[in-house]
Write a structure and sequence with these properties.
Elements lengths: L4 H4 L7 E3 L2 E4 L10 E4 L12 H11 L6 E4 L5 H9 L4 E5 L2 H13 L5 E4 L12 E5 L2 H8 L6 E8 L9 E9 L2 E8 L2
Parallel strand pairs: 2-3, 4-5, 4-7, 5-6, 7-8
Antiparallel strand pairs: 1-2, 8-10, 9-10
Helix pairs in contact: 2-3
Length: 189
């Protein structure tokens, strides 16, 4: 094993752009004068570079601002980006306690306020919000859409060749990046 293995892994984490925001690790300086989400890739899913993450943030950037629930928050990248885009208040939940801890650390590192706690998005009580973002597996997205109390949903975590079954929802738009998709849905009233 090379002597510098503990630093060499950082070469694989490169910044990305989404929704007008720079998203990158703390050891790379963002360009001056831009909105930025600094995320330390570590124990929770989500460096910000994955196409589903970027697609969610692109979709959020086009929406009317309001309260937001990030269901399956991982490292907190999307929740932090939502705050920087003007959503408030922002709630973030994940079934993984480590993800919740990392989300809180990501929020603190970026100087934003996010209420984060452990919850199972399909079984536990969730807060109401204006907007839901769920970048998780397709079947979980479908279960979540069937029970969440929001008017607008941004869903991802699946390939562009797939579309969630969403009874009670009207499809609004789609962002596709590198064979992955994020869909925007409006609740039918």
């Amino acid at each position: 094993m090379p002597d510098d293995w503990d630093e060499r892994w950082k070469e694989f984490h490169r910044p990305a752009w989404a929704g007008g925001l720079w998203i990158g690790p703390p050891w790379i300086d963002p360009p001056a004068g831009v909105g930025r989400v600094v995320v330390d890739p570590g124990r929770a899913f989500g460096t910000g570079a994955h196409p589903t993450t970027r697609a969610c943030i692109e979709a959020l950037a086009a929406l009317t601002r309001g309260s937001l629930l990030d269901a399956g928050c991982g490292s907190g990248v999307v929740a932090v980006a939502a705050v920087l885009l003007g959503f408030a208040p922002v709630h973030a939940v994940d079934v993984d306690e480590v993800a919740v801890e990392i989300t809180r650390a990501t929020a603190a590192a970026n100087g934003v306020s996010i209420a984060a706690w452990a919850a199972h998005v399909v079984h536990d009580e969730l807060p109401t919000a204006d907007v839901l973002v769920a970048n998780i597996e397709l079947r979980v997205v479908e279960s979540l859409l069937a029970r969440v109390d929001v008017d607008v949903a941004v869903t991802s975590g699946y390939y562009a060749s797939e579309t969630p079954s969403a009874p009670g929802w009207e499809w609004v738009s789609r962002v596709e990046l590198e064979s992955w998709a994020a869909d925007v849905w409006a609740r039918r009233h």
